[in-house]
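for the writeup, i need someone to sanity check this before i put it in the appendix. the sequnce is what the collaborator sent (i think, or maybe the updated version? ugh). structure was predicted straight from it, no edits. if anything looks off just tell me and ill rerun, i have time this weekend
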Amino acid sequence: MTETIVSVRNLTRTFVQGGAGGKQLLKAVEDVSFDIRRGETLGLVGESGSGKSTIGKVLVGALPPSEGTVDLFGTRITPQSRDRAWKPLRHRVQFVFQDPHAALNPRMRVGQSIAEPLEVKGGMSRADRHARVEELMELVGLPPNFLDRFPHEFSGGQRQRIVIARALALNPDFVICDEAVASLDVSMQAQIINLLKDLQDRMGLSYLFIAHDLAVVRAASHRIAVLYAGQVVELAQRSDLYQRPLHPYTRALLDAVPRARKRQRPPVLGGEVPSLLNKPRGCNFSTRCPLATEHCRQVEPALREVEGRQVACHLV
């Protein structure tokens, strides 16, 4: 895992919100930086509204960055160059959505859905496309004779396998999984995560694994970035993050994870994520952090290197 295939630097994505009081700028993602290497899974975790999905949409080309740069496979994507630069890269970056039922056309047989990217790209005969679709079905652990069935005839886990097969049709290098197992039960989550790992080993895939469930992220990822109010507050190797979290928000998230035979309930994190239209002056987490000082409330902490990881906290 030495070759960096995704490099994000100072990524900011701003939306314009209109209302009776006039237009306001909402920074859904602010000054986010990270790298993803070939064959690596970077987990992206945070509460709802923290900006996780927005980052995924920027990386897949669905949204342009407002500021900052995204380098994919050595090609720089900027707000000005997005359309021109993206065209030759689209087949190398794919997306797996949260709801496999909504991601599949209910009127199309699953074989047609998987073959659709191949038809759009062109350059393959009908027989070659059919052979490729059968190969993909086997790759994700489904019998090829299921190709003529419709999505409603499959379970949720089987539908997610079909969505993964479609994402792999064009032999991508980088796959963004946005809450890809959130709609499944625990046993099925484990099966899909194991499938993703197996495909990673066989195909050299890199993943951005977006989730709110820390247990799921731990099972799927090599490194983990913790997002709060649109900013990365901690980025570390999986084992380091779970054994010794440094940022107070990361510690609060881990304390909230249910554990077997836990003797007492951990303290509930008070307050709410600040409005992205009206962020606090200093640290975004200062309004909820039990350790916050006046310095935390006045000065925004920078993301810096601490003990082999990156942390944005004055107290570390």
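The CA atoms of residues 156 and 303 lie 39 Å apart. The chain is about 30% helix and 25% strand.
thx in advance!!
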